[in-house]
Amino acid sequence: MTLPIFYNSLDRRTDRRTYMEEQLGALGLSAERHSAVDMTEVDEDELSRTVDFRMPRIHMSVQSACNAVSHLEMHRRFLETGAPMALMLEDDVALAQDIPALVRSAEWLPVGVGVVQLERYRPGRSPRLVGPPMAEPVPGRQIRLIYSRTGGSACYLITRQAAALVAGNAGRLTTPIDHLLFSPNASPLFRRLGVAVMMPAPARQNEEKFASDIAAAREERRKTALGRLRRAWFEINCLPRQVMQMAQGARWEPFAYAEMPETSGEGRGPAAS
User: Fold this and answer.
1) Which domain covers residue 149, as residue numbers?
2) Number of helices and strands (H, E) in the chain?
3) Is residue 266 part of a domain?
4) Is residue 233's pLDDT more than 70?
5) Distance (Å, rounded) from C-alpha 29 to C-alpha 54?
């Protein structure tokens, strides 16, 4: 059974909806569109019942908060299905040609993994601290547990158990969705989720076609003194745990997007059955 696919899209962004439907159709996939929470229409008092704007662990703009709430709503919709795992997308993501192989079933998923990030956020090959390869669900792409923060929430797989954990323990949100899922220091759930990354990534944000709706707000946050101090604190606080993980075999590895990965066989982990 093919896994369910959900994607967030604002009602007013019909261009993005068309882009996603055409891209998914070309890959032979279908997805359920979720009407994303719109910052231009949301009641901020109502939003603050879900998002803690006064005492966040990581500052959230209204845009970022709307995005996080939209993802949680997709998780809850997924939990209404009987599927063991689902693919979550944002409407500006570019998908590699082998994405369909990843949603044919959940049988390839290693035991103990609840979330797999498939997106390389922003261009480049900046490293991530990852464990040894656990599986190779498609040729040339490895699943590895991750021990350092990796940004982006445009494309990830999540199991029923992980989605239920997020839905049941998010409470009032104190971090953006990518921090909640993929930040080992800022997320109160990270250690319980079982977070992995696929290397190289089979998805990326299509920045050439669409400008991110929340990138400007994130950049402004980074420029503030408080934002820089908070980010530095989270990075420093992770170091002792990361040193221990490196002693147990974790390594810093370059992380990049690849439309089709090399399949020479070098450095491969065990193939999924």
Assistant:
1) 5-254
2) 9, 13
3) no
4) no
5) 41
